[in-house]
Amino acid sequence: MRVIKYILLIILVFSVFAGCKKDLAGLNENPNDQTSINPDYLFKQSLKEGAGSYNSDVNVEQWGLMNWVMYLAARGGVISGNEYVIPSGKDAFWNEQYINALMQIQEVINISGNDENMVNKKSASRIWKVFLFHRLTDLWGAVPYSDALKGYSDLNYAPGYDQQHEIYLNMLDELKNAALSFNSSAPFFNADADLIFSGDINSWIRFANSLRLRLATRIKNADHDRYLEEMDDLSGKDLISSNEQSALFPFNGQKKNHLYEAWYTNQAAAQNNPSKFLVDMLVSTNDPRISVILEKTVMSIDYPWYDEYQGIPNLLPNSDPVWSTFDDDWRDVSAIGNWFLRDNTPGVLLSYAEVCFLLSEASLDGAYSLSDAQTLLNNGIRANMEFYNLHGDGSVLITSGQIDSYLSSITTCTLEDIITQKWLSFVFENGYEAYAEYRRTGFPVLKNYDGTEIEKSIFPKRFIYPNSETTLNRENYLKAIAVQGADNEFTKLWWNN
Fold it and tell me: Which helix (H) or strand (E) holds 258?
């Protein structure tokens, strides 16, 4: 039995880097014959895989990251001494990204080669490849990068790792060069294949520049000179500048929003409710987004003296007697807002609101001079609130009067103010970025059930590598951790140091 398991594990790892995917078999073509593969099909499939799946959005993001950054909290509490559980789906997420999304997009790049008629397809694919890799390195640190995805071309089935600083500098270069490589006179993906921007070149350029802004900001504390260099080069370049230009994945009846899928098909997912930390922040600041983000407690509808909004206490031990005071059916706790639980709620890859917050931080640092930090902060808040209206079903609206009233209460613009508002804009939509930004900045200041700040020393800084890497790519794995540090959740990433 051990031999069989070992053989199966070898097959899996070879698949990761060779990209031998059965879902391409429907093409009835030799996968090694690049000329026979339709790049539009590969591009579309990579967008679908990269936008998320059950493993990534449920096991990793919802049960893991969204609990860690306190959007959600588990009913019944946590086990003392084991407050942060590494998501069980992390290995599957790694494999999904390498086997499916990245191998597919790399094939498009390989097929394109130096063909001038495919320069636009290649440029967009390079941008999407960076998007996929930046999530991987933000979760693990050093990952197979420059040596990866070469199973077919170089027969390299045990790729070496690149350290995170090498990956980030290369990704920034890739985004800059890819954005400059588009040719308006050359063909592009059709609207059916380009699920994100419907075949619009200018949208991909804005996405590349905006993603570059995100990555440059991420490394600000680790390589400030490079951050300033990137900000200087981005000045005046086209960025996402409206909600309509945001990079979104269009979930629909065929590929449903994963929060919707989890909530209505997996009973375990429903064991997580909005956290007390989130609820208290929205209530205490009279934030009009509360009507979108949360549902009122069932008890408050039936009995007016109950709190309209209440969250699950964060990190409260499961042995605490407080749990016995909650309703047996949790009717005294708020649920996730229905806005997020529709099958067609769009998946946010990079929003206009985020761009505003990134520029606000840059302005605060003196690295951006086209607008002041306070104005940009307010623009980001307004954009986030209006985004809910734009992509809602009309059942819940945030009025312009409510937005103006809330903005009148925002009288300071510190880094904490900016990142806290960014955290609010990511709620239930982008646990990856919320997790990354908390590690980078320490904001918002996350608090335990009793109002004290969390113990940062036990807060996870990264994911542990998959078992397939520690066994079948062991030599390169050992080289990587010899430089990066111990393979545990407490080793900080390069940009986090």
Answer: helix 258-265
For the chain, first and last CA: distance in Å?
44
- Residue 413: CB partners within 8 Å, gap ≥ 6? 360, 364, 373, 374, 377
For β-strands 72-74 and 272-274, DSSP reports them as antiparallel
Tell me how far apart the 2 most distant CA atoms of the chain are, in Å: 69
Cross-strand bridge partners of residue 247: 350
Within 13 Å of residue 158, how many CA atoms lie on the same side as its CB? 14
Query: Which pLDDT band, with edges at 50, 70 and 90, does 2 fall under?
Result: very low
Mean pLDDT of 21-45: 62
% of the chain surpassing 70 pLDDT:
91
| pTM, full prediction | 0.92
Alpha-carbon distance of 271 to 245, in angstroms, equals: 35
pLDDT band at 80 (very low <50, low <70, confident <90, very high): confident
Sign of CA dihedral 166, 169, 172, 177: negative
Share of residues in the chain with pLDDT > 90 (%): 81
SS (H, E, C) 410-459: CCCCCHHHHHHHHHHHCCCCCHHHHHHHHHHHCCCCCECCCCCECCHHHC
Q: What is the C-alpha R_g of the chain? A: 23
Q: Which DSSP category does 79 fall into?
A: B
Between 145 and 31, residue with greater pLDDT: 145
CATH class, domain 2-239+430-496, is: mainly alpha
Q: Is the Cβ–Cβ distance between 72 and 66 less than 8 Å?
A: yes
pLDDT value at position 30? 44
Residue 324's Cβ-count burial label (10 Å; 0-12, 13-18, 19+) is exposed
Collapsing DSSP to helix, strand or coil, 316 comes out as: coil
Question: Which pLDDT value is given to residue 382?
Answer: 99
Answer yes or no: are the C-beta atoms of 145 and 161 closer than 8 Å: yes
The amino acid present at 68, given as its one-letter code, is W
Collapsing DSSP to helix, strand or coil, 159 comes out as coil
Instruction: Answer yes or no: are the C-beta atoms of 434 and 71 closer than 8 Å.
Output: yes
In the predicted structure, residue 359 carries a pLDDT above the cut 50: yes
Other beta carbons less than 10 A from residue 424's beta carbon? 23
Tokens representing residue 60 in the block: 């990793």
Ramachandran assignment for 85, one of left (phi > 0), alpha (psi -120 to 50 degrees), beta (any other): beta
What is the Cα–Cα distance from 46 to 175, expressed in whole angstroms? 18
Distance CA 142, CA 302 (A): 53
Give the residue extent of every domain in the chain.
Answer: 2-239+430-496, 259-340
Q: Are 338 and 295 in contact (CB under 8 A)?
A: yes
